[in-house]
Design a protein that fits this description.
Radius of gyration: 16 Å
Strand content: 5-15%
Number of helices: 7
CATH topology: Muramoyl-pentapeptide Carboxypeptidase, domain 2
Shape: globular
CATH architecture: 2-Layer Sandwich
CATH class: Alpha Beta
Structural class: alpha+beta
Bound molecules: zinc ion
Number of domains: 1
Distance between the termini: 32 Å
Helix content: 40-55%
Low-confidence stretches: none
CATH superfamily: Trafficking protein particle complex subunit 3
Order of helices and strands: HHHHHHEEHEE
Mean pLDDT: 91
């Protein structure tokens, strides 16, 4: 990551991380009573990305229309698997083609692509990753389940390819479950 961008983003990440860790202490969150298709497309909260790209809203709306339209016509569980495995494939390719050489490189790629602001909290055998302002869910109501299967797949694909072993990413917190960020726990497959 270039020094200038790193300095700008690192203070944003520090603020988000402080808020996120506080939120995790609070346990129960009730799903919203009702929400519409429009809510899933148009409720967006990405102040950083909007500050660097005035067209960010259009990008997010387009991505979400694509994501949710498939969801409306297909079985949700099948779609989750499809999104995860697509993400996994892309994550692996980013490593095999040399775009990502170490886990930290994922941060810049996620920023440039608008996927989200990636924060790596632990990169030992078990990896903990937060994503702030994620393209899939940032700003969405609490729908009662996690939503970022694509991002989970990308993270697992990157780590698996970097380490030469199969890893699996589980999303533990999401706007979809009432948080204001996404948290992924990545473990070696089968553990
Ligand atoms: Zn999420």
């Amino acid at each position: 990551m270039s020094e200038e961008v790193e300095n700008n983003v690192s203070s944003i990440i520090a603020n988000y991380r402080r808020k996120a860790l506080k939120e995790l202490e609070k346990k129960t969150r009730s799903p919203a009573k009702a929400f519409s298709f429009e809510d899933l497309i148009l409720q967006i909260k990405r102040p950083y990305f909007k500050s660097i790209d005035p067209n960010d809203t259009y990008k997010v709306v387009f991505y979400r229309l694509l994501r949710w339209s498939w969801y409306l016509i297909g079985p949700p569980s099948l779609y989750a698997v499809h999104l995860y495995s697509t993400g996994f494939k892309i994550g692996s390719l980013l490593v095999y083609q040399g775009y990502i050489r170490k886990l930290e490189d994922l941060k810049m790629l996620a920023l440039k692509s608008g996927l989200g602001i990636v924060d790596i909290l632990s990169s030992k055998s078990e990896v903990i990753v937060h994503v702030y302002e994620g393209i899939t869910c940032s700003g969405l109501p609490n729908v009662g389940y996690t939503l970022c299967h694509f991002e989970a797949g990308v993270i697992a694909g990157v780590i698996s390819a970097l380490r030469g072993e199969r890893y699996h990413a589980l999303e533990e917190a999401c706007w979809g479950t009432g948080y204001s960020f996404c948290r992924f726990r990545v473990r070696k497959y089968g553990k």
